[in-house]
Amino acid sequence: MLINHQPSTINYQPSTMINQLRKKHPRLLYQKYNYQIVEQQLRVTFKFFLEPDITFRPAVVIPIDRKLEIKQLENYIFHLGLIELISYWKATCSPEIIIDAGYINQEQIDWLHDLFIYGLGEFYYTNNLDFTAQDFLTITCSTTATTSHNLLPNNKNNGDLILVAGGKDSSVTLEILKESPNRKGTLILNPTRAAIDSIKIAGYQPPLIVKRTIDPLLIELNQAGYLNGHTPFSAYLAFLGTLIADLYGYENVIASNENSADEQNTIFHELQINHQYSKGFRFETRFREYCGKYLTSSVNYFSFLRPLLDLQIAKIFAQFTSHHLSFRSCNVNQKKDSWCRKCPKCAFVYLSLFNFLPYEHTIDIFGEDLYLKPEIQTAFKAVAGIGTHKPFECVGTVEESRLALAMSSQKYQAMNQAIPDIIELANQEISQAHKFLSWQKILNQWSEHHYLPPEHENLLRKNLN
User: Fold this and answer.
1) What range(s) does the MurL C-terminal domain occupy (predicted)?
2) Number of Cβ within a 10 Å radius of residue 106
3) 351 is in which domain, residue-wise?
4) Residue 166 domain-assigned?
């Protein structure tokens, strides 16, 4: 569901800093990857060289309990490095990327270039970078096709590998898929308490845990004034999840991205900027096509919640009360394992659950009535698209937020309490004549733009109804 917001009013001004960085660091080279298997761990290190004199060595450690053929394992590792590269390129936006570590053809280069543009849209916007120039980014491969990583025959994989983050979405996926007879496992990248506990609460076996390490030098450069910003994290998860699924013999890699993720935040240089691009349907489609052609035909990546909007997921989540005091979605206070109660993410999760839970229970989760908290009012306005573009956070659509805010008035009326100002404001932004009809339409909608296998679709429909 897309809403046509007004284009951003930001005007591009040539940046002295970006020009200096691009001149000083003209090329970024993906030179190689190294790996070893030690104590049932696959330990991978990538080597990126930023001309003239900077070397990055990010790493990832993956649990392993069976062997893939070396060529297949190396193909996965090589591709994981291609996605890892994004985080290091954005520090300087070097005009050229050279792939030395393996071979990719022109179609693959075009696919990767597309991800650099769409997946980094928010980064370009927040740093005021014009990415439209023809020479902005060139990707070339120095390796010949004779060293190509070949797609290997189909393995007989089975079962579901569920990606878990600790929020309400993956908790809903965990709970619904408990009903499936399929073999099931879970995967967490750099685990949080909330993610681990959500798996325990849902009754699954302990998760597979992957640890990704950023090179500290990148952080030092960011602190010294090099560029920083949002990257397509879910793209990394898609490649990583596919690797893990093949390692452990799973047929399906299951994300918990929803239909709401397709809505843009703003427009910049005629590009729809979407904070959640790599959670969206376009990326999911492109990754599935790429995976089947260049990675494996043994693994099926899809998002279980793709047919639904955020409010529908919140309604389902409201039923799973054992998760309510454990889940976390706030990025600001992630390390503190708490809700900051000020950011757009906290605002959206609050308004999305408010209409589906008893008032007192909502307060138990968040510690106070956020509709009455002055420090978060700007965030409520932002997620509802009132006076600004949709914030760069993983939140639902503007229409969902406005309706959820407006519908919240009923609870205050039932308690004979004054309706908070933010709810009154939201009521002014929507058609009162169609408010209840729109609410029911959202709660009953089903997008056909998804890749759910029939058995998974049936389970989701059952829980929606």
Assistant:
1) 327-419
2) 10
3) 330-444
4) no
